[in-house]
Design a protein that fits this description.
- The protein is an alpha/beta fold.
- The strands form 4 sheets. An 8-stranded parallel beta sheet has the order 4-5-6-7-8-9-10-11. Strands 1-2-3 form a 3-stranded antiparallel beta sheet. The protein has a two-stranded antiparallel sheet with strand order 12-15.
- It starts with a strand and ends with a strand.
- The model has no long low-confidence stretch (mean pLDDT 97).
- The chain binds magnesium ion.
- Magnesium ion binds next to loops.
């Protein structure tokens, strides 16, 4: 098993501003896992919020030794080893997980969703993200996103009302609202939720900082909109306690180490009565296509990371008018653009 990696700088169509950062380009790392004449592709899109960058990825990929395993079919053994190499490094671990699953799917000539017995027609409609900006730019983005039936709106700075009102001047589409931990007190959060509640909002994502668990639990008791955990949920072990404060979780492959753990998280969340959403970082079609394979198990889908960029190096699961199209392409269903 031979592992190689290559960095790509993904160009965003618009500056991507959320409550804690603003970016025009995003670095991602695509890995190739080669064995027996087949290449499995994986991706790590590192996030500073979780302590990763291009340097930590290179260190991690240089450290792991996959040559000691007989074949990529030993996914469980390999991922246990990879997870134990160092704590954190979740997007690096995710890249290995995706590449192994892609390799196995290609070897068996089968898309992953089919190996898991999932109905490709059951993927919920995918939202399109509108990041924080001026009224003029927000309205331009909303017009550009006309084909997408659900919008996800970033809030959490001091222009929340302007963001929502700018959008509502143009469309009454359902909105997911994501504060990215931007509301710092429970009173402010409740005031925001109350203002939003009759504006066709589906849910509020991560209203307050993840460290303020008791405040979020209080907010949930007073909120008429469902609350979804994002920054509060990283891996499987986070889930059981979250049901006290949230109505659902947003799983991201880059945080949870990949599709193998994501599958366990989906079932665990269901067992605690929570809804399941899948989101993403700014990613290429490699990460997005891997997530889309789990699409039929989701309540809410937010896998738009590669429709926000202009130079996706891969072609994979397509998003047409918000519908993720799962095809017969084996593995994750993504290949390099030639
Ligand atoms: Mg979020």
């Amino acid at each position: 098993m031979k592992l190689t990696w290559k960095r790509y700088d993904l160009q965003l169509k618009h500056t991507f501003r959320i409550s804690r950062s603003a970016r025009d380009t995003v670095s991602t790392m695509i890995i190739s896992l080669e064995h027996d004449g087949i290449i499995g592709y994986g991706e790590a899109s590192p996030s500073a919020r979780y302590g990763e960058d291009s340097t930590t990825l290179e260190t991690f990929f240089s450290t792991i030794d996959l040559a000691k395993f007989e074949s990529p079919f030993l996914i469980d053994d390999i991922l246990k080893y990879v997870d134990a190499v160092a704590p954190g490094n979740t997007s690096a671990k995710c890249a290995v997980d995706i590449a192994l699953h892609d390799w196995v799917g290609k070897k068996l000539h089968t898309p992953l969703y089919r190996m898991w017995g999932l109905n490709p027609m059951k993927v919920p409609l995918c939202s399109f993200t509108i990041a924080i900006d001026t009224k003029e730019i927000v309205q331009q983005k909303v017009r550009e996103a006309e084909e997408y039936p659900i919008l996800k709106v970033k809030v959490g700075l001091d222009n929340d009302k302007e963001m929502i009102e700018s959008i509502r001047e143009i469309t009454d589409k359902p909105l997911f609202v994501d504060a990215n931990e931007g509301w710092k007190t429970r009173e402010k959060a409740l005031e925001s939720v109350r203002w939003l509640k009759d504006k066709n909002i589906v849910f509020i994502e991560q209203p307050m900082p993840s460290a303020q668990f008791d405040d979020i639990r209080w907010l949930r008791d007073h909120s008429e909109l469902p609350l979804i955990a994002d920054e509060s949920v990283i891996r499987l072990s986070d889930i059981p306690s979250l049901s006290q404060a949230y109505d659902g979780i947003n799983i991201k492959l880059m945080k949870c180490t990949g599709v193998r753990e994501a599958l366990k998280m989906i079932h665990t969340a269901r067992a605690t009565g929570m809804k399941v959403m899948m989101g993403c970082m700014i990613e290429s079609a490699v990460g997005i296509s891997a997530g889309a394979q789990l699409g039929p198990l989701l309540d809410y889908c937010d896998l738009d990371g590669n429709v926000l960029i202009t130079n996706d190096p891969f072609d994979g699961v397509r998003n047409t008018r918000g519908k993720m199209i799962l095809t017969n392409a084996p593995g994750i269903g993504a290949m390099p653009r030639t």
